[in-house]
Each structure stands twice: as C-alpha cells, then as structure tokens.
Amino acid sequence: MSGTPGDQETVPRQQVPARTDPLAHPDPHTAAQAAAVENLLRCWLRETDVPGPEHGVLRVPLPASGTALLVPVRHWSPTGWHRFGAPCLAGAPQPGRPVDAVTVAALLAREAPGATAADAVDLVARVADSVRRTTVFIGDRREQPADAPDLFLAAEQALVHGHPLHPTPKSREGLTESELRRYSPELRGSFPLHWMAVAPSVLRTDSAWTERGRPVTGPQLTARLAPQSELPDLPDGYAALPLHPWQAQEIRRRPEAEALLAAGLLRDLGPRGLPWCPTSSVRTVHRTAAPAMLKLSLGLHITNSRRENLRKELHRGVEVHRLLRRGLAARWQAAHPGFDIVRDPAWLAVDGPDGTPVRGLDVVVRHNPFRPRDDVSCVAGLVAPRAHTPGSRLAGIIHGLAARTGRSPGAVAAEWFPHYLEQIVRPVLWLDGEAGIALEAHQQNTLLLLDADGRPAGGRYRDNQGYYFRESRRAELDARLPGLGERSDTFVSDEVADERLAYYLAINNVFGLVGAFGSQRLADEGLLLDAFRRFLREAAAGPRRMRSSLPGRLLDSPVLRCKANLLTRMRGLDELVGPVDTQSVYVTLPNPLHR
C-alpha cells in the first residue's frame, strides 16, 4: 500500500467508542449505512487487486476520481470477512468527514472495468434502496425483538443485514412500504395466498409426492397445502394454483396471462386461508405444521435476479427426488445418516393454448420436514449479526458453551468447527464423489441441525436451482434415471462443476463461517483454516478418503475462482438467465488454504 502520514491523519475517528460495533449504533440508519459500506468494500477488495492495509488503514485508490478512500480496519480477515470503520476521502476539504454508502457505490462504479453510466446509476439506486430497507429492518427488530416460537421460521427471518459480500443484499425495488411490511421475512410479515383456478387444458404439473406409497398429483396436490375449508371452491375440472399476492397483481398486467383470464382458462379466486410466512428467500413461504412449503414465483429483483421459477428448475427438483429414491438416498443415508436434501417433489404451472410456458405462474411444492421445536438454521442466519442484541446466534452459542464448560470461546470454537465439517461438508463431498452431483451449498441453502447444547448434529440442503450433474458421470446417472437432465438442463462440464462447488461449498460456506468466527472475535481464523486443511487432507488421502476432486483442489491450488457479486450486479446480469457458465462474473483470488 502507498500512502502518506498526512493521508492517515485524515482517517475519521469513530463516532461511537472504538470497541463498539458500528452495526450496533443506536441510530438504525447509521447502522445500516455502516453495514452497506462494509459490504461494498469487502466486495471491491475481493473482486479487484487492492493491496492490504498498513498501520491499520486501508487505502482504496480511485484514479478515475483523482482521490482515494482511507478506511480504518477493525479486523483483517484471511477469508474476506473484513470489518471496517467509516471511510473518508484522502485530501478532502473537510478532513475526517465520513463517506456514506451511496457515495462509495458511485465512486467504485466509476472504477469498475466495463461499467457504463447506466450501470453506475443502477448500482447507486439499488444500494440506496438496500440501505433504506435495512434501516427499517433494524429499527423494527429493536422495537420487537421476540422471535417466532417456530425455531425454523425464527432462523429464516434472522437475516436482517443479508449477505456480507453482496453490494445490495436488501434491495427490494418494486415494493411499497406497506407491501414491504407484509412480504418481508425481516419484518416477520405474513399473508394469505392468492388463488387462481386453472383449466385442465392449460395446467401443467408433475409430481413424485407420495403418501402411503400412492402418488399425489394434479388437483389432489393443492389439497395437501391447506385444510379443505381454506381452499376456494373450484369450477368443475379446474385445479387450484396458489400465488404470491404481489405476483397475482403483477401477472394480470402481462398479455399472455390477460388472454387466459379473458378466455376463462384462468380464473382469479382472490386471497383465501390463513397466513403463510416468507422465509429467507422472500418468495418461499412456510406455515408451521403444514406438510409442504411453497416456492412461489416473484418478479421482484432480489440480490441479482428476478425471482421467478423457471420450468427447467421445476423439472430439476422432481428429477433429483426421483433419482435419490432409486437407491442413491439409501446409500447416502447409510454413510451420512444426519444429512439429507429437502425435496422438491412436485410442481404446478400454466402453459398458453399453444403450449408455451406462461412465466410467473409456476409453483414448487417443497417438503416441510421440520417440526416447530426442531432447532434448525440456515447457516447464513446462524452467523448473521443481530440488530437487537450484540453478536450473532453463533456467538451466543459459543459463549454459552464456553460459560457452561469453563473453557475459552476459542477452545469451544476449535471443537465446534470440526463437527460442522463432518455434518455438512463431508456429506456434500460424498454426493459429488459417489454420484457426480455437486450441490450449490452456499450458506443460505445449507441448513444446520443443532443439538440441545448448540453443537452441529446434522444438515439439510435445499434449492432446486443448485444442482450440477457432472458430464463425466452422465452414463451412470442416466442409468439410474433414464432421460435425466433432458428437460432440466442440469449437466455441466466437470470444469464448471469444480468451479461452482469450490465457490459455494468452500468459499461462501466454509470460508464464510471461518470469517464469521474471526470477525466476531470468537476464534483465530488461522487455526480454523488449519483444521480445515487437516480435514481436507484426510478426505483426500486418509482412511476415509472421498472420491470428490474438491479436497485435493482446495489443498493444491494457489488460487480459486470466486463469484464477484459487485461486478455481476454492475453488469446487470440475472443469475437465473442464460447458460450456467456465464450467468455470473467470476474472478480469481488467492487460496487461504494454500501454503
């Protein structure tokens, strides 16, 4: 890093005591600004070649603006979960005046290779929207801290700040303030489903859902979603289709849906039934004790994509369920009884009279395997900073175990972390090595089951978007389920599968967990990386050797390919559209495991 003592003198002093976390600032807007600035800086550092800090100050050059950002460093993380104080501009007329998130976004957008003026405006608008929403979320949590009695739902609603390495984690463009309150998990929103009646000639569905060994299909399927008293009366032969209420209003403005309504092939039955609650993905809804969750289409831009289901994803979920039932699940469960996939065994959708899918009317029916008292949390929720109390739930668990056992938090973390690797990482490596299926096991898709003391006791994976069938294993997978992948577009080259598995499982999931331990001062990141190395060595060559290529790749490669959320956002890419290998921008970063 280059810099002069004069530059360093202009670094702003913290507006709260140095040991106080900026995310805990008493003013919700100030806390939301701090979170957004940290996210932008973490993304920029990961995605560009900026030298590390000197003397506790990071200098971010801004040659297009003829200046630089000077940022006090609170924690420097080998895995990327850095913590920062408020930045200021070098040589500013008012030395030490902090720079807000929107200004940081505008400055970084000017430096991004290939970014246009329109890209910069879009980024700035989304950052501003994300800050505004986060401010509301933080304020609400501080006023109403009590969680839902359903532990799964409480964990799903815990991501108040969102992904720590995304520039706009809480942007919800298109929602009014009243809609935000109804539809946001962070505000513990809830709403009845909106129902449409679909004529049999345009209904499309597939189901591998069974009860007592018998298939449940078509109109029977929606009867499992709610008590009969809650379902609308249907015209003869029509099936009930549940929609997100926001989507139900949006879809009426689309010509293809408007034509179906005018022809009577689609009939609007309105809202009906008891409320459902949004989960961490916003569009997937949950109701305590219901046999299914629903992954609804929702045409809002959330993080990098419009969240409408694609027909290939519907096929993919059912395919994986059928594939697992043909002996693969039994083998997997014998090796790793604590891990499974939350299945997506059925779906309903609508085609036009010409057979063309009508996008936005697609519903995934997902198993709900969790009882209200099951202590299960998506990993992102476990490590997320809480707005109403210091630290994350992970910090609470580690400090609680430390107090009960008389050990230091670092010693407890050093014991907890290998259990996590066994319960989560090893089963995912097994499925890759034994079956050639790589999972997009990032922290929001990974569910951790906890025992009564808060230790890892099992895991689940969810997401019908996130499967990669290895091309090299096509023959054996097709032998298990003939025609696999023909409609789901799930086979990818081994190179792509390796890249995605390394990013989602290693960088996002495990490195993200290590970074949470370090940034929350629970453990030394270097010691946890050493533990991960030992686990990978044993998985690559020990007596419990895994067939997956990932352990060796993580140990031997000096660099890894990493998804660049900021550059992806600035280039306007929708990660659900187009070929899987070009949906996102990937960059190369140093591998913290490589010696």
Descriptive report:
- The strands form 7 sheets. An 8-stranded antiparallel β-sheet has the order 6-16-17-12-11-10-5-9. Strands 1, 2, 3 and 4 form a 4-stranded antiparallel β-sheet that branches.
- With 595 residues, the chain is α+β, with helices and mostly antiparallel strands.
- The longest helix has 27 residues.
- It is built from 18 helices and 25 strands.
Fold blueprint:
Elements: H1 5-9, H2 28-47, E1 57-62, E2 67-75, E3 83-84, E4 88-89, H3 101-111, H4 117-143, H5 151-156, H6 177-183, E5 191-198, E6 203-207, E7 210-211, E8 214-215, H7 218-223, E9 239-243, H8 245-251, H9 255-263, E10 266-278, E11 284-286, E12 292-296, E13 298-302, E14 305-307, H10 311-335, E15 339-341, E16 346-350, E17 363-367, E18 376-378, H11 379-383, H12 393-405, H13 409-435, E19 437-439, E20 446-450, E21 456-461, E22 467-470, H14 474-480, E23 491-492, H15 494-519, H16 525-541, H17 550-556, E24 559-563, H18 565-570, E25 586-590
Parallel strand pairs: 15-21, 22-23
Antiparallel strand pairs: 1-2, 2-3, 2-4, 5-9, 5-10, 6-16, 7-8, 10-11, 11-12, 12-17, 13-14, 16-17, 18-20, 19-22, 20-21, 24-25
Helix pairs in contact: 2-3, 2-4, 3-4, 12-13, 13-16, 16-17
